[in-house]
Automatic annotation (TrEMBL):
Entry keywords, A to Z: Membrane, Transmembrane, Transmembrane helix
Superkingdom of the source species: Bacteria
Entry's localization field: Membrane
Name of this protein: Bile acid:sodium symporter family protein
Alphabetized InterPro entries for the sequence: BilAc:Na_symport/Acr3 (IPR002657), Bilac:Na_transpt (IPR004710), Na+/solute_symporter_sf (IPR038770)
Membrane topology: Multi-pass membrane protein
Bilayer-spanning residue ranges: 6-26, 38-62, 68-89, 96-115, 135-155, 167-186, 201-223, 235-255, 267-286
Keyword Membrane listed: yes
Highest classification ranks of the organism: Bacteria, Pseudomonadati, Bacteroidota, Flavobacteriia, Flavobacteriales
One Pfam match: SBF
Length: 290
């Protein structure tokens, strides 16, 4: 890991603590008692989005490796950053965190299965992808579970302080995340930067943007319309989780596990715009229907 990766991990842990400090244990009880939003969100993340990605990849003018890379982005569901957007706009943060906790376990099965399917489909070959389960469990634990639980406990025992620091934490975390992303994209490869060319960005932008927008917009309308009829806040939360993928994990799968730098490029391009477009879409839809 480079210093940028360590810095990003530290910022994500601080963000997750802030998210946890805005919640109560009862919020999670309500989510699991009324499981329809959770189950729909998981279906849209784990099934609907990959199907969209396979269709778009089939018709996109990309190399076979880049098509596989697009699929890899789609099968790495959002993590702390998507939770952070729900937290920022006061969506259903408990639902967002619950989706992340459950899909972090599901991907141990779906990533090897679907990434191999993508290789067979677009590269006419086969490769075995095996995730380092213990490392992933540890990463999920240290970045998501432990800071969130500490935040929940902090809110329970020091609720007055938690309320007072809520806004300053939002400002600090947003600023830190923006700084880290800027460093990530403009630093050299030797320092942990992206190292992608401008030509590659413009060539990959249409397919990645189409996948992102179509999945996010369609998931919102699926959630809010019959037969599901979720509240506007829940529909927005689900669209955030479907719209913002875990590009750090996608780069790890493509570059480290599959040893193919071309497969990492869709994730790099996707990461450049998806946070901002997801935030803009969420700010609009959160105000439409409560």
């Amino acid at each position: 890991m480079t210093y940028i990766d360590y810095l990003l991990s530290a910022v994500l842990m601080l963000i997750t603590f802030a998210i946890g400090s805005s919640l109560r244990f009862a919020d999670f009880e309500n989510i699991f008692k009324n499981s329809k939003p959770l189950l729909l969100g998981l279906f849209l993340q784990m099934v609907f989005l990959p199907i969209c990605a396979f269709i778009i990849a089939e018709f996109a003018g990309l190399s076979p490796a880049e098509k596989v890379g697009l699929i890899i982005v789609a099968i790495c569901p959002g993590g702390t950053t998507s939770n952070f957007i729900s937290y920022l706009i006061k969506a259903d943060t408990a639902l967002a965190v619950a989706l992340t906790a459950v899909n972090s376990l599901l991907i141990l099965l779906t990533i090897p299965l679907l990434s191999n399917l993508a290789v067979v489909t677009f590269m006419d070959s086969h490769t075995e992808v095996s995730l380092p389960i213990l490392n992933m469990v540890w990463d999920v634990t240290k970045i998501i579970i432990v800071p969130a639980v500490l935040g929940l406990l902090f809110n329970r025992f020091f609720s007055n302080i938690a309320q007072k620091i809520k806004f300053p934490l939002k400002v600090i975390n947003t600023s830190l995340l923006g700084i880290v992303f800027l460093i990530k994209f403009f630093a050299g490869e030797e320092s942990g930067g992206s190292g992608i060319s401008v030509d590659e960005i413009f060539r990959l932008l249409p397919a990645t943007l189409l996948m992102h927008l179509s999945a996010m917009i369609l998931s919102y309308f699926i959630a809010i319309k019959p037969p599901f009829r979720l509240s506007g806040v829940q529909a927005t939360t689900i669209s955030i989780e479907v719209g913002l993928q875990n590009t750090v994990l996608a780069i790890f799968v493509a570059g480290t596990l599959m040893h193919n730098t071309d497969m990492t490029k869709p994730a790099l391009v996707y990461a450049m715009f998806s946070f901002f477009t997801t935030l803009a879409f969420a700010l609009i839809t959160i105000r439409i229907k409560k």
